[in-house]
Amino acid sequence: MSEDFIDVVIVGSGPTGSAYARIIRRDWPEARILMVEAGPQILPQTGAHLDNIADLKERAALEVQAQGGDRTPRIPMSKEEWEARRAGGFDASQLRRSGLFIANESDPAENLFAGFSAANVGGMGTKWSTGTPTPSQVERVPFIPADELAAAITVAEGLLGTNKNPHPDDQTAIAMREKLGAVFNPGRSSDRFVQPMPLAVTPGPNGLRYHGTDVVLGPMVDEPAESFQILAETACRRVVYEGSRVTGVELAHPGQDDTWFVAAGTVIVACDALHSPQLLHASGIRPQALGRYLNDHFIISQMAEMHSDVPMQAMSWIPPTNDFPFTVTIHPTSFTSITRPDGFTGQPVGMGVFCPADLNPDNRVTFDDSKRDWMGLPAISIQWRESEGDKARQDYAKQTARKIAEIIGRPAPGFATIVQPVGSSLHYQGTVRMGEKDDGTSVCDRNSRVWGFDNLYVAGNGVIPTVTATNPTLYSVALATFGARQIAREGRQRQAA
Fold first, then answer.
1. Between helices 146-160 and 15-27, what is the axis angle to 10°?
2. Per UniProt, which keywords does this protein have (predicted)?
3. Which CATH number goes with the domain that contains 39?
């Protein structure tokens, strides 16, 4: 693809950037689209999911390549750290998540924000859990008509390739869900009953094939470069604009000073909730809400012991409702040789209770213009503090986790109910949030167009403005379809004129 003029430049190659590309291509077939990715192409298949690689050593080596500027292999958890975690204490392995880690306190056990960002073609689409549960009504954007958002969610399910019941014959999981349903289903609508976790997967004779952005992009991965191209190992240093119109992007190879300019009709910043505001800040685009309202749900982890003669394979889901604020995921897990405690004779079952956090404009991403990261952009820091309401909900979530464990079998002996550091879900939101009007509390409108600009959009979990407890990928892809349709519509109108 030549560097003269591109109809649409997408910065970031994750699920929402890929969704923009696919919907724009559907509605505007002639559009020339360029996708920019700071990280490398780590797999032969564009944007494929790493979990499809059976060889764990090979997978781990590729994950290191997706860590951006920090490609230090992760040190495994030690026995001492594992025992500390089992006992409910803080273990230092939580500070060794591969990739970007940001903490704002000298005491890492207090107000730690554990952030991570993938940098590779496919973004987090190469690493995500593939969970695609639908957000509850209270989690949805209130100023988007309900029928429009429901239709967008259906489109997003198609883009991601959601399977509502990947293990339909798992009798152990079915029996467990029946027991849980007897307690949690009364008073719920049928779509919010205890159910299989929807996953973006394709079942096959050798197990599940996990969907990455290769599935979202579909046939676009085989298009000629003149029509669609992904520039790997290319950082966007700046979005260039004149007045209310973006004119293009300034690009560079990470670690190099030389830059080049690509003229663009529209630019979509689809990095992530940490790096999208970073790029806007570096570009001098700094609305009052930029980087603020950083939000994530806490994860309360509980190990349960189930007694069943048949191993469970399926993941299950207790959805949130207006009266039940948590998303609960229940899944089979396993022990290593050093971790099974005495007296534990049944199946280990893992559980994560996603617990929502209060919105706070002072929980935010900040940037240091005097320091540069590996991409040559202002260094990121996090300001985060949990509220008293957050602490109360965590206590309620712990009680809920233990109650569920009792229904499944019993809380696993020797395992405490623990709260993972906020950020561990990798579901952070709100930093480029959408709003109903430009009143200083949002960055973009309901179609994700940045306030004050005609042709600049943002994408990703960062646009979500509400308090959530649900895995957000399906939600953020659904929101991306509104902006993509608008870009395609306006592009066709310009061509016709």
1. 100
2. FAD, Flavoprotein, Oxidoreductase
3. 3.50.50.60
